[in-house]
Amino acid sequence: MNCGLLSGLNEPVPLKSISVEVRVQDHVASVSSTLQYVNDEQRPLEALFVFPLPADAAVCHFSAKIGEQEIVAELQDKEKAKDQYDDAVSSGQQAFLLEESAESPDVFRLSVGCLLPGQNAAVTIIYITELAVQADQSLRFCLPAVLNPRYTPAGSDAGIVSEISSVSGAVPYSLTLSVHVSSPKPISKLESNCTLDPLVFLCSDHTQATVNLSPGHMFDRDVELFLYYQDTHQPSAVVEAGVATAPSGSLMRNPVVMISLYTEFPEEVMSSMATQREFVFVMDRSGSMDDMMHRGKEAQHRIESAKDTLLLLLKSLPMGCYFNIYGFGSDFESFFPKSVEYSQDTMDQALERVMEMRADMCGTEILQPLAHIYSQPCIPEHPRQLFVFTDGEVGNTKEVLDLVKSHARSHRCFSFGIGEGSSTALITGLAREGSGHAQFITGRERMQPKAMESLRFALHPAVSNISVKWKLPMLVTAETVSPPINVLFHGQRTLIYAQLKGKSLRGSEGSVTIKYSLKDQPVTNQLHFCIKPTEETGLVVHQLAARTLIRSLEQKERSSAESKNLRSSIMKLSVQAGVSSVHTAFIGINKDTKQIVKGPLQRRRVPTQGQMKTLYLIGPPIDLDYDDDCSIYKAAPEPPQDLLLPLVSLQKASGCWELDAALAAVLGKTEDELTNQKPAQVDGSVWATLLALIWLYGWRKGQQVEWQFVARKAAAWITSQKVGDLSQCVCVGNVLLGCQVTKDSLGI
């Protein structure tokens, strides 16, 4: 019997291909994924597929096509939908069920029931999502392709996430991806971590373009696209008309406005850094952190990259701050009983411990270390900044996020998702609930630049007293449906969704004003917009607004005594908006066909790509089967050493370097060469620090984002020594190191 493609369990896999169409309108993407199933077996079967979606996606359509017949699913109460599905399948009817995991909103389960022998079924899922703004002002779209097993703490009900079926080799189905981009601003370029066909512009002003993923994607990485527009992002407003047939007063009946704001802080604020902070670094040391960052020959283990990042962070901290470092796995430990003041002694102690760190703490239980950190009293006048580094493979995501949200007023949380398949729900959720910023390190990206960008955010003066005011025509009011704005960062986008109620004067103008305090100075930003609904947006804005409100209500439900009423509100909004929630599911039944099935259906699980070598559950570790391709991990040669980290590692906590053989070796000189060229007006430490700065600006300018705070400390230390004009010293240093930098560029 020809069973077709086989899974890792040597079972036939009914999923043959996935075809994805992405339509990007400015900063919003609509994604349509069609999954082609074929039953190659001799009896009816049920196919189960647990797969990832972006955590903030609004899933708004689910349908199946069998032959020429299309079945469009409808949203219902999840428990009723599951009962209908079971009844239909047991009676021989074809049924399709799509449900969101109760544990993590970035994991879904698709059930295709009673697929007859030789039968084809094309299942289509449509979702919409906003694109995140990156540090270089690009917009990032991510199609999740890797789903790693999630660690589930003892006593937890893992639900759908416990059903994740992953393989380490190639998955037995293919992917095609086409992207259409449309923007009011010219498209500059489009980049990706995967191979793309050439970008094709559809009009002379370059406001529309298409691109396709080149054939042969192996599902070994998430597909990331980075869109660049010629003009920097500007504040904008999109007003979308409601649905005339929707219930009166509902979100779907009234117009909804989506406000996009981009905060720009004055240069004097950007150049001023706060020093009085408490930094708590939380590092994942679970077994999966021993995996490689990517599959290239120069790849590091995740834990080694994390150690390099901690070294750079520790060297970049300002004098006057406090810090501590936690490692976690199935248990956790901290370097110090409580946060300590940053000094040469405490920095040296921490660096010694960092060098000893290993990925040897088994599972991924992040809840307990966070609870311990929050139990520690905050240090007066030192706002707490929490940095969490993890590959995001946890099964109790919502419990973790609820804990972070309950302490949101006492800290800011900056999160980092390491490697392919990290949970977007966890990483973006930590930053959202902790009023911080989320970063993902995938493919060949390095962890250090991302960490330094977040450190820059953490050191900037915090924005406070944020308020939003609307000015609208008479008899028109705005009811904000998105959560209150708790944080603003320079160059980052802030979205506001609001329902417009009353008798709208089509074409009239409204405005929204955001006020906040920055370094005790009041700041006002105002955006004027036309109330007339934008043409041809469909229900995208309404469904994104509904998704935002649903997520807020779900979080409130988990911490409220009135959960029954909130559950009812969530289900009502979900069904009206056609957007999935934790309490609803899409169900479609083909009532025209029925076949008597003798005995239970054959059940086939469709695997996703995973990257863990060892899955830690309750009890001893279970080795996952890897094929011969895994040898690329074992045989990866040591990458050539970059001199940046060795140089940074020699810097003192105060910001200076010592004139010694170690520094000379990094600079490619002998100690005598450095000493003999030292100008008489400076001592050894000033000369060494000046040479280190010259080398950084002369030979590592392209990596400045990584050493910016190291250099800032060094320049401040030199200035504090009051050694007079250093122009001649800089000239000597340039000749010695083969550089051409100016004194002013060094900041001294």
UniProtKB/TrEMBL annotation:
It comes from Danio rerio. It comes from the Eukaryota. InterPro entries: VIT, VWF_A, vWFA_dom_sf. This is von Willebrand factor A domain-containing protein 5A. Residues 278-455 form the VWFA domain. Residues 1-129 form the VIT domain. PROSITE patterns: VIT, VWFA.
